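I am writing to request your help with a piece of structural work I have in hand. A protein sequence and the structure tokens that stand for its backbone fold form the material at issue. Please examine both parts with care and let me know of anything in them that strikes you as inconsistent. The record follows directly beneath this note.
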Amino acid sequence: MPVDNKYELETIERLKKGDPALETPEGWEAFNRTTLLPSRRKDFPDSYQKR
């Protein structure tokens, strides 16, 4: 998926609705921490500082 579309609100909402595990706050937080944030760091390395 093109990076331009990957993080659009519509794409994220469609993803959340398509997976029951992501409908709970805990499930969404786990997905965000383990999948979404690492993917954004890879796609936009200059936006994140290494600690």
Notes: Residues 25-43 form the longest helix (19 residues). Helices lie at 3-6, 9-18, 25-43.
